[in-house]
Amino acid sequence: MQEALLLLVLIIYPATVVSATSSEPPISLPGCPDKCGNVSIPYPFGIGDGCAATSHNRYFALMCNNSFQPPRPMFGDPSIAVEVIDISLEHGEVRVYGDVSYNCFTSNTTVSDSFYICRVNMPGDHAIDPFHPQPVHGHRL
Asked: Where does this protein chiefly localize (predicted)?
């Protein structure tokens, strides 16, 4: 089975948890890091205990992998996490790097070349919901 490195754009449904009265959402909660390396980490996402809105959705919790220079924010279980390269609350999306299967199956025996038929799982036991793969700014996946 071949694997390819693919940039995925993930749509975030509940990312509108931030205050509706402020024109600029707060970047992070007090005492919480607002960056990991070169990537801004806006609330409801967060790094560390009590820094993410996990009561709304556990997927908001990120890790900062300091073994890279600069450090990289990661999503998912530590052993198989994917790198987060951008979070945009304005556009309601998170961009990540991750391995995606080249062959997708429409049944137990039929191979499809359409990405849209593939079931995409995030690292660990997390199913893709509430995230959905999307074309990258007009480019087909």
From this structure: membrane
* Contact call for residues 73 and 33 (beta carbons, < 8 A): no
Domain ranges of the chain: 3-134
The phi and psi torsions of 59 (rounded to 5 degrees) equal: -70, -10
The answer to pTM > 0.70 is no
- List pLDDT tens digits, range 25-57: 558 999 999 999 999 999 999 999 999 998 888
Those residues whose C-beta lies under 8 Å from the C-beta of residue 4, and which sit 6 or more positions away, are: 99, 100, 102
Residue 12 amino acid letter: I
Per-residue burial over 55-93, b if 16 or more Cβ lie within 10 Å, else e, is eebebbbbbbeeeeeebbbbbbeeeebbbbeebebeeeb
Token reading at 87: 């979070």
Q: Which two tokens stand for residue 93?
A: 């999306």
Half-sphere exposure of 44 (CA within 13 A, CB side): 20
